[in-house]
Amino acid sequence: MTRKERYQFVIDYFQRNVPDAGTELLYDSPYQLLVAVILSAQCTDKRVNMTTPEIFKKYPDVESLSRAQFEDLFPLIKSISYPNNKTKHLIGMARMVVDEFKGQIPLSVEELVELPGVGRKTANVITSVIDQQPNMAVDTHVFRVSARIGLTLGARTPLAAEKQLVHFIPRDLIHKAHHWLILHGRYICIARSPHCMECGVKKACKYFSRLKVEKKESA
After folding, report:
1. Which CATH class is domain 3-21+136-218?
2. Of the four, 111, 164, 197, 204, which is 20 to 30 A from 83 by CA?
3. Fold assignment, 30-131
4. Continuous segment of H or E residues that includes residue 206
């Protein structure tokens, strides 16, 4: 199978079986999504979704969050990984949005990465989810799954993986492809002992192909 054929097989599978894939983070506005994505770094979406309701109740918009004090916000997110840094990032992000962007969450990667706590991955998530921009957020799941299947070759960094993925995936599907890969990595192609026999793309997967060869040789 050529690389182009592999991409087409994977895309066709997900379009048939997961046509409406989206983020599992719960949000009602760009502001809420940005808060949730900042909190989700090295933390599960489930934990974030358990935490954000109280935050949004006390700080319903970016203006109120910009006036938050560390000692008031910290207790609301202390169960999240790296709560000290994330508390500072959330307050700093809100203040910058209010001061520099007139209270509106920017929707360009270049502007978003200027905000405290926002890196390229977070910016790609925000722009692809909110505005369906053709940006590919590469987290640990996307990085692992795309390498295992063979969608990326020799990519040593998330940026290198991102460049390969956006080169081969049709522009109008890139915003969905992030969710396809992350959900596949979260539930099927897990880090340890992936559920290969349940996988719908195993026919196109280089990792599964190697497993078959190794099993045959050891028989």
Report:
1. mainly alpha
2. 111
3. Endonuclease III; domain 1 (1.10.340)
4. helix 206-218
Contact between residue 66 and residue 95 where contact means Cβ atoms under 8 Å apart = yes
**Which tokens is 1 given?**
């199978």
For the chain, the structural domain boundaries read 3-21+136-218, 30-131
Give the residue numbers annotated as catalytic, written as ranges: 121, 139
For residue 142, name the pLDDT band (cuts at 50, 70, 90).
very high
d(CA 205, CA 146): 9
Domains 3-21+136-218 and 30-131 agree in fold: no
Q: How many CA atoms lie within 13 A of 80 on its CB side?
A: 31
Contact residues for 192 (Cβ-Cβ < 8 A; gap 6+): none
pLDDT digits (tens, 9 = 90+) for 59-116: 999 999 999 999 999 999 999 999 999 999 999 999 999 999 999 999 999 999 999 9
Residue 97 to residue 114: CA distance in whole angstroms: 10
